[in-house]
Amino acid sequence: MSFYINNSNTCRPGGLCGNPSNGLCEKALIEVTKIFDACRQQIVESGINLTLTDFNPASPTLPLTYISATTTPGSQATISDVVIDRLEQKPNFANVSGIVTVPITVQYRDANGVLGTASSTITVPENVIMFVPQPSITPIDIKVYSTFTSTIGTINAEGTTATVTGCLNIILKVTAQVDILVPSYGYPSIPPCQQAETQICPGPGELPIYPTAIQ
User: Fold this and answer.
1) pTM of the full structure
2) How many CB atoms lie within 10 A of CB 114?
3) Position 68 confidence tier, pLDDT thresholds 50, 70, 90
């Protein structure tokens, strides 16, 4: 059992049926990350030079054959040198600029046929117009999320640089940690888990930006 499997308890998340005010029992103050604005940019570029470091396994046998380059799993893109330059005609909007750095893992095959990986980064300057609220005690934060995929490229004879063609997706968000007062149905009833008889990993495919819930 879970929130959605064989569970008829009304105190659970999900779609609303009937009067949505039924069951409201409090006004809850919650701390959340509020997103004031967001934008997405997709860049397809060739001739990207990636400096290769941290080979695994170490000291591969040259030459190296390029296989792919992707965003490093578990690593987060960062944005540095952020400048918020407000527009004089529209004070709630600003040019948001900075340097986005994306950790990259390059996969290759060495001269002995051994598969390996190396680390690198992609650095991209960003300059976009976004809605930015007025200054307050609570600071505004610019967050960045990014993915990179490439299956076209070469590695130089010395095994130090990969030159690739790939697709870079960047999402910028203007956020702040805020307290919000919301109507609440109270705490949910958490049911016991239902053990799965078999576990099947999902197949390959492009992930959506946001998760969806289909009942």
Assistant:
1) 0.80
2) 11
3) very high
